[in-house]
Amino acid sequence: MTATNTQTAALEDLLAFQHETEALAGISGRLEWDQETMMPRGAAEQRGEEMAALSSILHARRTDPRIGEWLAATDGAELSQVDAAKLRHIRRTYDRTMKVPARLAAELARVTSISQGKWAEARAKDDFAAFAPVLAEVVRLRQEEGTALADGGDRYDALVDDYEPDMTAAQLEAMFGEMRPRLRALREKVLEKPAPEGLTGEFDEDKQMALAVKLARTFGYDLTRGRLDKSVHPFSSGSGSDVRITTRTSATDPFNCLYSTIHEVGHACYEQGINPDYALTPLGGGVSMGVHESQSRIYENQLGRSRAFTHWLYGQMTDTFGDLGLDGPDAFYAAVNRVRKDFIRTESDELQYNLHIMLRFDLERALISGDLAAADLESAWNERFEKDFGYAVPRASLGCLQDVHWSVGLFGYFPTYSLGNVYAGCLHATMRDALPSLDSDLAQGDTAAATAWLRENVQQHGGLYRPAEVITRACGAAPTAGPLLDYIEAKFSELYDL
Amino acid sequence: MTATNTQTAALEDLLAFQHETEALAGISGRLEWDQETMMPRGAAEQRGEEMAALSSILHARRTDPRIGEWLAATDGAELSQVDAAKLRHIRRTYDRTMKVPARLAAELARVTSISQGKWAEARAKDDFAAFAPVLAEVVRLRQEEGTALADGGDRYDALVDDYEPDMTAAQLEAMFGEMRPRLRALREKVLEKPAPEGLTGEFDEDKQMALAVKLARTFGYDLTRGRLDKSVHPFSSGSGSDVRITTRTSATDPFNCLYSTIHEVGHACYEQGINPDYALTPLGGGVSMGVHESQSRIYENQLGRSRAFTHWLYGQMTDTFGDLGLDGPDAFYAAVNRVRKDFIRTESDELQYNLHIMLRFDLERALISGDLAAADLESAWNERFEKDFGYAVPRASLGCLQDVHWSVGLFGYFPTYSLGNVYAGCLHATMRDALPSLDSDLAQGDTAAATAWLRENVQQHGGLYRPAEVITRACGAAPTAGPLLDYIEAKFSELYDL
């Protein structure tokens, strides 16, 4: 059985409408990039008006009743795999958008735009109490949204599903349950050892940027379809043939610039690597936050922080900056992977990073379920941090105010970072089997085989498969935390001589 | 009599709808800026799709039948001057847009996007014949559009009206008739004199840009609501609190960078100087191309190329680049204002510039009336050029292929450049009377009084008045070519010792 004429016409109309929506959404992303990189500071208010106008157009398109009619008209049609996947995405977005009352969507947009500012002020003053009331408001609205989306199911699951389709809190809990004891045990042993030396001194920031560009190229980022600029927080933006990344520089910490660049290059290469036939369709972007993060993490960590690659990078660094004051490439490798007692998630290492996420996962579930009141977040955070990390949080900016996420309503987002690490662990293990010369390539600064493997097995598919399916197809087995944990244990045991 | 409730409601709905349309149009401008400055070259096709989606949204809004209903509902309402002006603009745009069949608008967009590429190729090869067929197509479509817009009137007038409301070919012809003999007579005398020395040598391009930024600030450009970048062709883009400009650099010709900057600063200061209450309304942009050009020209020429200001600039140049190889500030003034036998409009001087425009005005009228076939343009151009300038055009890139305008369908646009010069002449004469210390200010690099006068008398009004009315209000008399011609004759007679 094939599609009838009516079905074919409905499909064509729906995809043409979607094409225009995707193009408009691309514009929205371009403006966000501009806002963080190029926009004059005096233009913020006007830009707010422009973005509001575009959001209103996009919202109207996403709730256009014709989408429901077209979808109904295609019901039962025999579709190609690609068209079926497109319709799956369109249906999913339409269903979710229609479930959220317009009043709630508008209220969320309004409150989160205010609360981000309140968060920034509160963080600057280490004053959680100043942030708590608006946080309570954001939580209340997201609870309401979660309930609307959940159809009687768990509302936190409904929020997670926004970032990682098919994922549930129960699955995440099982995953973290496997990870927690092994990571804590390893952390304890590592922290008993003397800490390796880090970098000292100052590093010219223009030279850092020049080296960042070189690293981006080294990892296969196509600068004819992208560009690298500076911003306060590094990010990757866009898809298809216009995928831009940013990084930042600090005179005393060149690793921040360089590894932020490699991380964003991972995100960007995913977007650049998607089958160009999917451009401006629902398949033309990364399939989920978890899979996206798997790409940024594997570029940054399993490749970028490997002994082989850091040996090559050591040569680049000394060529660029002269003597680094470290005792050769192995000391450099140790400096790159140094495990320290610290507070900040984004500055954490591969070993401790997931412990930061587990803390957030538990606290945000409690906020969304209502078990934890927003006003009590700071004390709950501090208590839990001390339990997990063994020392006290001295001030809110090093504790519960360190991340922007909750202020903008991102609940259910944090676990996708760890999921990305887990996916990266699986992909890395499979890739190592497939590429026996990986380390000798990396030691030459040659990532071509690795990035080609990722493009072939993950990136090209865009939104064609479901998130877990992407990893399962690439690895031949469903994703589990085992390979990541094995990798981390092996790496840090060797590095710290355990 | 005041507005009824129904009238008030219709007015509010119309202005709210228009506000969103203006915001979306602002986004379109931002993307065009990005395309010329930041966009990776591989993104062109995708950007085309994005722009097409946004254009289609904008076209749908501009032809939304509710506009007609709202306008009808406000008929007879007693309105404030500001609201009346807003409705005048909305009605004008709506009437014009509705007169052009959708099929024709789409065909024009399609053909002009192709023809611009053909023009660039033809210009690179000096091959007019390769461009003639697509030019004929563009002319045919614009003829058809002009007829649709003209309501039985003259179709060239209808096209001019797009750029300069209320202006007609007859008025332009009378203006050029007054200008031509005086400019030709002066030109002949000047060209008999020995040409002053120009700049020689090379000028660091980063230093040119740093000086360009300083000049932009000197002329009052607010960099907190704008920015200066490089592009192939200099332009100003945006309005309100986000008005960005570009310039270009050539190692051997720093005047190109610096005077392009001042020119674009004039455009940008107009947009930045508009009453902020008009932001995102039809009054929030410059009122016409002619008035816009009056601002860029008066900044660039009457102020920027004055003896007083060039004396200050000479100091800046020698501070920046060292010895210029010229015999002091008066020789520098002569170099800035040097009149040469040349072919290119954009590189022309104040004296000859309008002769270039007159040639284009007559030829494009003949193309639009049908008296001149597109295929015959090159020979007509060359014949006319030799008659006006006294020497032959050696190749098409120095002749009829030098400007992009006709390739993108801009017929009726060229005369607004001369109109801008004429308006600038009127404003300059009035401003000189009002500001007796202008030259001593300019000699210190101080443009504050001049730019404040322009802001007060021209810029702040945005679209509140009709174009000629803006000049009439500022100068106390309707605009004529007299003041510009008097100024040019006085300046070049003195400079060339006639």
TrEMBL record, chains A, B:
Protein residues bound to Zn(2+): H263, H267, E293
InterPro entries in UniProt: Peptidase_M32_Taq
Co-factor remark: Binds 1 zinc ion per subunit.
Keywords for this protein: Carboxypeptidase, Hydrolase, Metal-binding, Metalloprotease, Protease, Zinc
Enzyme's top EC category: hydrolase
Alphabetical list of CDD domains matching this protein: M32_Taq
Organism: Pseudooceanicola atlanticus
Designated name of the protein: Metal-dependent carboxypeptidase
Molecular function (Gene Ontology), one example: metal ion binding
Cofactors, names only: Zn(2+)
Function text: Broad specificity carboxypetidase that releases amino acids sequentially from the C-terminus, including neutral, aromatic, polar and basic residues.
Gene Ontology BP, a term: proteolysis
Xref: Gene3D superfamilies: 1.10.1370.30
Superkingdom as given in the UniProt entry: Bacteria
Protein family: Belongs to the peptidase M32 family.
Residues of the active site: E264 (proton donor/acceptor)
EC number assigned by the record: 3.4.17.19
Catalysed reactions, semicolon-separated: Release of a C-terminal amino acid with broad specificity, except for -Pro
